[in-house]
Every structure is written in structure tokens, then in C-alpha cells.
Write a structure and sequence with these properties.
The chain contains 10 helices and 11 strands. The protein is an alpha/beta fold and 332 residues long. A 7-stranded parallel sheet has the order 3-2-1-4-5-6-10, sandwiched between helices. Strands 7-9 form a two-stranded parallel ribbon. Helix 1 packs across helix 7, helix 3 runs parallel beside helix 4 and helix 4 packs parallel to helix 5. The two termini are 36 Å apart. The model has no long low-confidence stretch (mean pLDDT 94). This is NAD-dependent epimerase/dehydratase family protein.
């Protein structure tokens, strides 16, 4: 069975592609531009078969052609523009085109091609301020998107539900949390790269960093998110159509700094004091702690544990970064 991954040049798509290829499956990677050379080098060593299609998710004719030529039966849709809270309003049209119209084009193409499972990656951003409150954030928490990105992700979800209910397409929705780790690199489609990537890149350069006193998040390694997504692609009779995916607990980036310092002796870092400006860019309001990160309890109750304790993920990423320095270089 062949799986189409959209947004395959991004690090979620690359993590899923790596896992499927390692298990001998056929993968079609759809991307707006070429995949990173390091990813292609690694993927060539795996037993599965990879095909790369370069094109725009907003081109319905292109999507229909890809779906037909490769006899696609499963789709993982990760293609999106992750616009930050300070995104230039002039970019709104393109963000809406990709995140909303592109999703609609793919849903209709998948329906016409006889796709058997469509997994949509949405975002915990649709919960708005709920993670800052005391109440647990579950799939039953009402969405209250407060940014352009969150609004477009919720719109994409609603279109997926409409196509499922009206036309019968087998669609599962996932809401992803703050992801970091292997294969993350600058694709030009995210306004701010994750603090863990920025910290790891600085460690590779031997450049000292100051991290914020705040900034704890439910950072979750990309390979663990990928394992959950692969599970949903294959699940025969899932009990639900919506799953939060993330580690469900917050931790401070100093945990990663300690792991990187063990890999790169002599590299220095420090945690700044309250109000001190960090050398790392954040997308968050650092003075607002996240008390209730979205819970993965529904997924893990049905499919078993996937998300490891944060120290294990941080140590694994430090080791991976040391082995793949090309991925952490600035985009040229």
C-alpha cells in the first residue's frame, strides 16, 4: 500500500517517511521544493521505495495526477504554512490558500481517487488560551482559535469533517503540540524555528546561548509524533475521529541544554533571570505558563503509550544532532 505524505519536506513529514521506509513501505513525498539532501541520503539506505513529487498543494490537477499515477491509498496531510502571531498581514491570502484551499483540494482529490484513510494534522493552537488555564485540555475542549494559523487549521478540520459526513471519506484529525527534534530544519515556511532547534544549532557552532527563564512547553520529539501518525494511518477501526498528539507535560529547554552540553564539551549556556532577554527566539508569551497542555490520554488509552519521558527525548535529539549537523545549518 502506498502512502502520500504532503508537506514531506518538513520535519513531521520526513519523520513519518523515515519510519514507513524503514518498514519497507512505498512512500510518495509531495513537497513544494526538493527534500533535504541529508534526508535523501538516509532514505536511500532504507528498504522502502520513495518517490518525490514537486508541486503546489493548491493545484487540484497536480494532486489528482499524483493520486492516480501512484495509486495512493493512504494520505497524511501535513502541508501548511505555520504563520506566527506576528506574521505580516499581507501574507494572509497565501496562508489561507495553502492551509484551507489546499486542504480542500486534497480532500476532494482523495475522495475521487478512492483513498482508504486520510489523516489530517491540525494543531493544538485551535484551543486558543485553554492550555494556560487550570482545566484539562482534551478533545472535548471547545476550540477558540485566536491567530490566523489557528483559524485556518480549524477551518481545515471542519472541511475534513464535512467531506467525511457528506461523502464518506475515512478521515482522522490530529491536533499536534509543540514538536521538535530530528529532521527539523529551516524550510522557509515557519516564522520561528523551535527553541530546541535554535539551541542545538548554537551548540554545533560552539556559540553560547542564553535561554529564557520561562518558556516551558510540552515539547514532543518528532519521531514520537510520527509513530502516532503511522499508527493512525494503519488503524483498522479507530474509536474516534480526533486525537491530541503530544507528550502532555511541560518541560524547560534547560533539559535539552544539559543533554547537548554532554555531547559538546566546552559549549556554554545559561538560563537567564526573570525579565532578561534571551538569545533564543520564542513564539510564546514567556510570562504565561502553560498549565494544561493538550492531553494524549485518548490516543494512549486506545493504542498504547508512544510518548517517552522528556529527558529521554532530549538525550536522543542531542545524539541525533551530533550525527546530522547539515540539518541544523541556516537556510541559504
Amino acid at each position: 500500500m502506498t502512502t502520500l505524505i504532503t508537506g514531506a519536506g518538513g520535519f513531521i513529514g520526513l519523520n513519518v517517511a523515515e519510519q514507513l521506509l524503514a518498514e519497507g513501505e512505498r512512500v510518495v513525498a509531495l513537497s513544494l521544493g526538493p527534500l533535504h539532501p541529508e534526508a535523501l541520503r538516509v532514505f536511500r539506505t532504507l528498504p522502502g521505495r520513495l518517490s518525490v513529487e514537486i508541486g503546489d498543494i493548491c493545484d487540484p490537477a497536480f494532486l489528482r495526477s499524483v493520486l492516480a499515477r501512484h495509486a495512493i491509498r493512504r494520505v497524511l496531510h501535513t502541508a501548511a504554512i505555520t504563520a506566527g502571531p506576528d506574521a505580516d498581514p499581507s501574507r494572509a491570502t497565501r496562508v489561507i490558500d495553502v492551509n484551507v484551499a489546499g486542504t480542500n483540494a486534497l480532500l476532494l482529490g482523495a475522495l475521487g481517487a478512492g483513498v482508504e484513510r486520510f489523516v489530517l494534522t491540525s494543531s493544538g493552537a485551535v484551543y486558543g488560551d485553554a492550555p494556560f488555564g487550570a482545566e484539562p485540555v482534551t478533545e472535548e475542549t471547545p476550540p477558540r482559535p485566536a491567530s490566523l494559523y489557528a483559524i485556518t487549521k480549524l477551518a481545515a478540520e471542519r472541511m475534513a469533517v464535512q467531506v467525511r459526513d457528506a461523502r464518506g471519506l475515512d478521515v482522522l484529525r490530529t491536533r499536534l503540540t509543540a514538536i521538535y527534534g530530528p529532521w527539523e530544519h529551516d524550510t522557509g515556511l515557519r516564522d520561528t524555528l523551535s527553541p530546541p532547534l535554535q539551541i542545538a544549532a548554537a551548540a554545533l557552532r560552539g556559540e553560547a546561548v542564553t535561554i529564557a527563564d520561562g518558556g516551558s512547553r510540552d515539547w514532543t520529539p518528532g519521531p514520537e509524533i510520527a509513530r502516532a501518525l503511522v499508527t493512525l494511518l494503519r488503524a483498522e477501526r479507530p474509536a474516534h475521529d480526533l486525537y491530541n498528539l503530544g507528550c502532555g507535560r511541560t518541560w524547560h529547554p534547560e533539559l535539552l541544554c544539559r543533554a547537548l552540553a554532554e555531547r559538546f564539551p566546552g559549549w556554554s549556556w545559561r538560563r537567564g533571570g526573570p525579565g532578561e532577554a534571551p538569545s533564543v527566539a520564542y513564539n510564546d508569551a514567556l510570562d504565561r505558563p502553560r498549565l494544561s497542555p493538550p492531553s494524549p490520554a485518548r490516543f494512549e488509552a486506545e493504542f498504547g503509550p508512544v510518548f517517552r519521558p522528556p529527558p529521554e527525548g532530549a538525550a536522543a535529539y542531542a545524539a541525533w544532532a551530533a550525527e546530522h549537523p547539515a540539518l541544523l545549518a541556516p537556510r541559504s
